[in-house]
Design goal:
Layout (H helix, E strand, L loop, with lengths): L1 E6 L6 H7 L1 H9 L2 E6 L3 E2 L12 H9 L4 E2 L13 H14 L4 E5 L1 H16 L8 E5 L5 E3 L5 E4 L16 E7 L7 H8 L7 E6 L9 H14 L2
Parallel strand pairs: 1-2, 1-5, 5-6, 6-9, 9-10
Antiparallel strand pairs: 3-4, 7-8
Helix pairs in contact: 2-7, 4-5
Length: 229
């Protein structure tokens, strides 16, 4: 059985991501591919959110459901981001529960899954590179110009998004053209960091979610299956 590690998005947890990616999970299960969903290390408070939740009952429901999780605290300023705990958490989990054949990340989890895939061979040399990585609604940590356009990877993270010339992990990107949380141009900027020889991009007409329609997922699943042979 092949094993794949899955990283959820901001204000989610592993259980919710498992439910929201059920279409992909069920198709991969038929191919004897097991998805392991883990929780981010950050426990969010209402003050940590980039938006306002005024409804106390709604926030209490979020906390009681344990979905107030994240990989790092949100900031629009890349200089303020600290992902050390996220990377430590994932690498430790892989060391204890791996090896893994692939990694899947969504949104904030996709930013981390990119870095994990890019650096795992140097951080955990006994593990080696993943056979595939799937990043859904992903983004990189960039500086922006006066028009809010991404112009370069922030200096603090440049090495983490550097793709080695020998990097052979099949890298798949999914993004929605109507994604208001991570606009499509941000995900395309991330995808453009990778050479065409190892990457595939899949665009859907929806928003900030992982599609569950079989007709959309089948070619992606086929690419994952071929990478595991």
């Amino acid at each position: 059985m092949s094993k794949v590690l899955c990283l959820h998005g901001f204000l989610q947890n592993g259980k919710i991501f498992s439910e929201k990616s059920s279409g992909l999970r069920k198709l991969l299960k038929k191919s004897n591919i097991q998805l392991d969903y883990i929780d981010g290390p950050i426990e969010l408070t209402r003050n940590d959110l980039p938006f306002i939740i005024d409804d106390d009952s709604k926030w209490n429901e979020i906390v009681q459901s344990n979905i107030n999780k994240a990989w790092f605290y949100h900031s629009d300023n890349s200089n303020e981001l600290n992902i050390d705990l996220a990377l430590e958490t994932v690498f430790n989990y892989i060391s204890l529960n791996g090896p893994y054949d692939g990694i899947i990340g969504f949104s904030q989890g996709a930013a981390i899954s990119c870095i994990i895939a890019n650096t795992i061979n140097s951080k955990l040399s006994k593990h080696g590179n993943f056979k595939f990585a799937l990043h859904v609604s992903g983004y990189s940590f960039t500086d922006k110009d006066s028009q809010n356009l991404e112009i370069n990877i922030n200096e603090n993270f440049k090495d983490l998004f550097q793709i080695d010339k020998d990097y052979q992990t099949k890298t798949l990107f999914i993004y929605g053209e109507n994604d208001n949380s991570v606009p499509m141009n941000r995900s395309k900027y991330l995808a453009n960091l990778y050479p065409n020889s190892i990457k595939l991009e899949y665009k859907h007409d929806g928003g900030h979610f992982i599609p569950n329609k079989k007709e959309f997922l089948r070619p992606i699943v086929e690419e994952i299956e071929s990478s595991l042979k």
